[in-house]
Design a protein that fits this description.
The protein is mostly helical. 71% of the residues lie in helices and 0% in strands. The protein has a domain of 85 residues.
């Protein structure tokens, strides 16, 4: 909700800084006795910090140096801004988590689609090989059929030649018989 604005000189809430172990010391003052520099805990400094950690470190440093000199209304307004920042940060973190869940769901769906595509490719290759084998069998059968037709034609030609030879032989035999009969009977 809306932060209560303390009267001038009253102690400030420690909610301005999100780290509960250091926040109360950071803002707990009575308006008369500011915290001494020796009481100030050192802010943690490192690379690749989250935005909220950077903001909290900034607030701690700034609070110890400046905040105790501000009127309480200004401090309350700063506290409100910081609470809004924390709420927005939490909302962004929730949205980020939702995006990560959606990304994982999409990656899982993509993995399933890839698996299905790979299985379809394997089936296609199997079917293609089977079709190639069937086509080869069909070609082999066609070659055998063509060879059989050629053999039949060859046999028919041989049979026709044999028939012609036989008929010619019979005609020659008949002519020889006719000639010998003519001689026997003196016809000529």
């Amino acid at each position: 909700g809306t932060p209560q604005v303390p009267a001038h000189g009253e102690g400030l809430s420690g909610a301005l800084v999100g780290r509960s172990d250091r926040a109360p010391a950071a803002l707990a003052f009575d308006g008369v006795h500011p915290p001494q520099p020796s009481q100030r805990p050192p802010a943690v400094r490192c690379e690749c910090r989250r935005a909220d950690e950077v903001w909290e470190d900034f607030c701690q440093d700034w609070q110890y140096e400046m905040l105790h000199r501000l009127p309480c209304r200004c401090a309350a307004q700063l506290q409100k801004v910081f609470e809004q920042f924390r709420a927005e940060n939490a909302q962004l973190a929730a949205e980020g988590a939702a995006h990560r869940r959606e990304a994982r769901r999409l990656e899982d769906a993509l993995a399933e689609i890839r698996d299905e595509a790979e299985e379809a490719d394997r089936r296609w290759l199997r079917d293609r090989r089977a079709l190639g084998a069937a086509v080869e069998q069909l070609r082999e059968a066609e070659r055998a059929r063509t060879a059989a037709k050629a053999r039949v034609a060859e046999l028919e030609a041989d049979a026709a030649t044999d028939c012609d030879a036989a008929q010619c032989g019979e005609a020659a035999d008949g002519a020889r018989r006719g000639a010998s009969l003519s001689e026997d009977y003196g016809v000529l």
